[in-house]
Amino acid sequence: MKVSFVYYSNTGHTSSVAAEAAKRLESIGVETTQIDVVRDEDKEVPTDVDGMVFMTPVNAFSLPQQMTDFFATCPSFKPGTPAVVFVNQGLWTPVLGGNRTARQLTDAVQALGCDVKDVTIVSWNKKRVPKIDAFLSRLTEVFS
Ligand SMILES: Cc1cc2nc3c(=O)[nH]c(=O)nc-3n(C[C@H](O)[C@H](O)[C@H](O)COP(=O)(O)O)c2cc1C
């Protein structure tokens, strides 16, 4: 099974979870590839995959422009390709934008033909570890 990760990470939080998640999937025999939408701008997006993982922080209560730019040129996937979505947020205000960003990301991923199997929103605070663990467990369930 082949699973590709697509993510944006400004300060390294999202990319650290992407690396951990890829390691977890590799440990159960899944072949993974990673695309950082900024650093790997010129890399071809593999569409012949069995699954996709899309990961982003919240920026300005919204999906970051870097992800929007990525989706503007991303080719479609095979209809029904299973996908998992991960959003992380970090403000200390009552409204963080995680739900809105998760909806935006889910819509963008569905528009490319993917079937979104799971959506996780994590607040990047001291309580994040069990939530990230739960995300990793769901990921292995979806892609095993
Ligand atoms: C430019 C910028 C805008 C941000 N806007 C929000 C926001 O609207 N809501 C929120 O909860 N966190 C916001 N954050 C915090 C990040 O979402 C949070 O720290 C996240 O964990 C960063 O992930 P990253 O290191 O992968 O970029 C913002 C951070 C930056 C740098």
List keywords for this structure.
alpha/beta; Rossmann fold; 5-stranded parallel β-sheet; 4 helices; binds flavin mononucleotide
What does this structure look like?
There is one protein chain. The chain has helices at 13-27, 65-73, 98-111, 128-142, and strands at 2-7, 31-36, 51-57, 81-89, 114-123. The protein has 144 residues and is α/β, with parallel strands linked by helices. It has one domain: Rossmann fold (3-Layer(aba) Sandwich). It has a five-stranded parallel beta sheet, with helices on both faces. The longest helix is centred in the first third of the chain and has 15 residues, at 13-27. Flavin mononucleotide is lined by residues 9-14, 57-61, 88-91, 96-97, 124. The site of flavin mononucleotide has 18 residues, from α1 and β4.
Q: How do the SSEs run, as a string of H and E? A: EHEEHEHEH
**Major beta sheet, strand line-up:** 2-1-3-4-5
Helix share bin: 25-40%
Uncertain runs with pLDDT below 50, 5 residues or more?
none
Shape: globular
What is the CATH topology assignment? Rossmann fold
The whole-number mean of residue pLDDT values reads: 96
**Over all CA atoms, what is the radius of gyration?**
14 Å
The major sheet is characterized as: 5 strands, parallel
Please state the second-level CATH architecture: 3-Layer(aba) Sandwich
CATH homologous superfamily placement: Flavodoxin domain
The N- to C-terminal Cα distance equals 8 Å
